[in-house]
Amino acid sequence: MLRILVADDHAVVRQGVRGILMEEFGPVTFGEARNSEELMEAIRKQEWDILILDITMPGKSGLDALKEIRPLRPRLPVLVLSMHPEDQFAVRVLKAGAAGYMTKERAPEELIGAIKKVLAGGKYVSSTLAERLAFNLDQETEKAPHEMLSDREYEVLCMIASGKTVGEIADILYLSVKTVSTYRARILEKMNLRTSAELTHYAMKNHLVE
Fold first, then answer.
1. Per-residue buried b or exposed e for 143-158, using 16+ beta carbons within 10 Å of the residue's own CB
2. CB neighbours of 51 closer than 8 A, spacing ≥ 6?
């Protein structure tokens, strides 16, 4: 019997994924985690055939959790299912060891296809992203400023550039407003920018937000 662990802080997403996969794969052993803490506990307690992971969760981000999971379960395939456009996070996720990345807006058939590919030992990315990755391999350029940010800083950058306030970001990431403000200040310093407006302009120019 297939053993699938779904880590997402939204119950409706977990139930939706569960419904789609039970219809396709029949009897399945499911595990669910609402945050990074529950995820790591489930990983330590039991072996899983695949982990379906969200990036934005309470506490540690999915990316941070992924880096912890790699040494514990090096052969566990991880498919990231995220609300963030692939332009924003897919490359970071794949570098961190995930077997695939897809957005939540994709059709159920694509999710099933991605899971089958990952379970078979393959990697899943959309054709658009595959083309972009191949193109980037040919480009010998210096690291862009946003590539020097930590994963959490990068997440905050994308949210600020998408028009979210510090308070809204704090609510989404379950952080204090003070902590988010510290991240914002650090991002501006690292990228040699002065204001959120400059940051947003940079993000749009570099296609980090739509």
1. eeebeebebbbbbbbb
2. 5, 6, 7, 43, 69, 76, 77, 78, 79
- What are 99-128's pLDDT values in tens digits? 999 988 888 899 999 999 999 999 998 877
User: pTM value?
Assistant: 0.72
Give the angle subtended at the CA of 164 by the CAs of 159 and 167, to the nearest 5°. Answer: 110
Domains of the chain and any CATH numbers? 2-137 (3.40.50.2300), 145-205 (1.10.10.10)
